[in-house]
Amino acid sequence: MVSPELAGKRLDVALARLEPALSRAQAQRLIEQGEITVAGAVVKAAHKLRAGERIAGRVPTPAPARLEAQEIPLVVLYEDADLVVIDKPAGMVVHPAAGHRQGTLVNALLHHCRDLSGVGGELRPGIVHRLDKDTSGVLVVAKHDRAHRALAAQWKVHSIDREYLAFVRGAPRSEAGTVDAPIGRHPTDRKRMSTRARVSRSAVTHWRVEERLRDATLLRVRLETGRTHQIRVHMASIGLPVLGDPVYGGGRALAAARGIARQALHAAQLGFTHPTTLERVRFESPLPGDLAALLEALR
């Protein structure tokens, strides 16, 4: 039954809130496929709910992954029967997409685990969150659906602790700050995100200076939300683009001169509540070799 709190909300938004394992995009697909009804009728995703209406439907059993398992080396920080924590290298795509059907983290995990959660769909088994191809660092993967749902629920309520190390071009005037600016798809370039989008979602990024360097600054960044390209977009919006970022103006010439061919961004820490033990756990990844060398070169 639609509660007073959900009255007036779009059906796809409400469904994503009611079922933590579903993203809004997944909810929209189910609605479009006629799997979800409101008051006994098939409606559109944009249908505005009224208090007392009954939402009914079935979330189909996830299809087993049919991707190719590949023997690709992985750096495993932790593993048990519920999840595996990976230190992802820069240059590795997380899940298959157009142009990247092989050599992804998912292909490697299918060989390593053989029992990944299917909630994420055929192309994203076990994937609870992702890192950009050229961002390195800590990433957690669920091994079964219960763990996947428990971890996804934590992402929904922003209870995950995520800290990144980001080399940015320029020098901030203060030692710490917060960027609170909604992020959405860029109005003219669909491959980019923007803080000036017509349709956007709330996004909050906290940062503090870790070390001031020559022509750059090393920041420790904490995410309160998890939007696509959030750190890269937010830092660029305040005049501190991530060094080497090819999309948001991060001084590629300076990065290239120091031997860096990617955005200098690293997921250094990840903390969450374990889905089975309910203990708070935290995993860390040191700066990889290329960023460690960059740090020395800029000192």
Give the CA-based shape.
Answer: globular
**Elements, N to C (H/E):** HHEEEEHEHEEEEEEHHEEH
Approximately how much helix is present in the residues?
10-25%
Tally of helical segments: 7
Instruction: List unreliable stretches of 5+ residues.
Output: none
By CATH reckoning, the class of the largest domain would read Alpha Beta
pLDDT averaged residue by residue:
88
Largest sheet report: 9 strands, mixed
Whole-Å distance between the termini?
A: 60 Å
CATH superfamily of the largest domain: Pseudouridine synthase
Identify the CATH architecture of the largest domain: 2-Layer Sandwich
> Roughly how many Å is the radius of gyration?
20 Å
**How many domains make up the coordinates?**
3
In total, how many beta strands?
13
CATH fold call of the largest domain: Pseudouridine synthase
Structural class: alpha+beta
Q: Could you give a short description of this structure?
A:
The chain has helices at 11-18, 24-32, 105-112, 145-156, 230-237, 252-257, 289-298, and strands at 36-38, 55-57, 76-79, 83-88, 136-142, 161-169, 176-180, 184-185, 193-194, 204-213, 216-223, 265-273, 280-284.
